[in-house]
Amino acid sequence: MKKLGFIGAGNMSSAMIGGVVNSGLISGENVTVSDLYQPSLDKAKDSFGVNTTQDSVEVVKNSDIVILAVKPNVYPAVLNQIKEFVDGEKIIVSIAAGKTIESIESILGSDKKVIRVMPNTPALVGEGMAALCKNANITDEELAIVKQIFESFGKAEVVGEYLIDAVIGASGSAPAYVFMFIEAIADAAVIGGMPRPQAYKFAAQAVMGSAKMVLETGKHPGELKDMVCSPAGTTIEAVRVLEEEGFRAAVIKSVVACMDKSKEMSK
Ligand SMILES: NC(=O)C1=CN([C@@H]2O[C@H](COP(=O)(O)OP(=O)(O)OC[C@H]3O[C@@H](n4cnc5c(N)ncnc54)[C@H](OP(=O)(O)O)[C@@H]3O)[C@@H](O)[C@H]2O)C=CC1
Ligand SMILES: O=C(O)[C@@H]1CCC=N1
């Protein structure tokens, strides 16, 4: 397996490092991670046995595949810092919202190998969802290798880059909305007298199980919802209030706002 590098050891990077090392696909000794903040590197080394450095150039020198896991506003500085060390064989993987493949090529050169991926943080527990798109310099085999990395900690699909804004709305950012939903359900359970840790367990399992039903039954979410709503029962009362309060409209509006922000960042 190739040598993997991460520039940035923050939230998303840590989830991917944990995911890929825990899966056994790549051992920590074949992973090099850089960050400006030494405690982040110490945590990655202690947790996953990876090689660490504060020098992003060292990551590029030691890796066949380099995942850029810094914030979008840091991309230009990092790309300019590493570009002379990115030869025609190294695969650069961008995971940033708002950074198109073209914007990466404008600094590294259009002859370089670039893959854009939109992952999400459930990668940490092997339940990530990632979308991949590539430039013309990436071979099918190289794309398959990078896809295998993201499949080691979840699911991955190849998409056209035009869909990345929708991917961010429906997947990259989506865990945040779901965490809010789980927290709100648990708050209500606490109102009902349930201890908070137990409330989180019940609420989180209900969300995970429901998601698993959507993925594995192939049934429409509306049909699955109807299967829970016993006539004159408890569930339909909750559904009535959710509709009265505009739950679905609020979700749609929030995800559209997320996608709009992604488009704005991409300009
Ligand atoms: N968080 C998520 O759920 C997802 C994030 N992404 C994308 O992943 C990227 C990272 O996001 P996220 O993990 O949330 O951000 P974080 O801020 O958590 O992580 C970024 C890390 O990079 C470090 N850093 C900054 N400059 C450099 C540098 N020059 N060299 C090495 N490390 C550096 C930061 O250090 P310091 O804090 O000291 O600046 C920080 O530790 C973003 O582009 C984001 O769009 C994509 C999908 C999901
Ligand atoms: O909030 C963000 O910009 C990043 C990209 C997708 C999830 N987090």
UniProtKB/TrEMBL annotation:
Coiled-coil blocks: none
What is this enzyme's catalytic activity, as reactions?
Answer: L-proline + NAD(+) = (S)-1-pyrroline-5-carboxylate + NADH + 2 H(+); L-proline + NADP(+) = (S)-1-pyrroline-5-carboxylate + NADPH + 2 H(+)
Gene3D superfamilies to which the protein is assigned, alphabetical: NAD(P)-binding Rossmann-like Domain, ProC C-terminal domain-like
Q: Where is each Pyrroline-5-carboxylate reductase dimerisation domain found? A: 161-265
Enumerate the residues binding NADP(+): I7, G8, A9, G10, N11, M12, A69, V70, K71, P72
Where does the record say this protein resides?
Answer: Cytoplasm
Q: Which residues form the Pyrroline-5-carboxylate reductase catalytic N-terminal domain?
A: 3-98
Give UniProt keywords alphabetically: Amino-acid biosynthesis, Cytoplasm, NADP, Oxidoreductase, Proline biosynthesis
Q: Which HAMAP family match?
A: P5C_reductase (MF_01925)
Q: Which family does it belong to?
A: Belongs to the pyrroline-5-carboxylate reductase family.
The entry's protein name is Pyrroline-5-carboxylate reductase
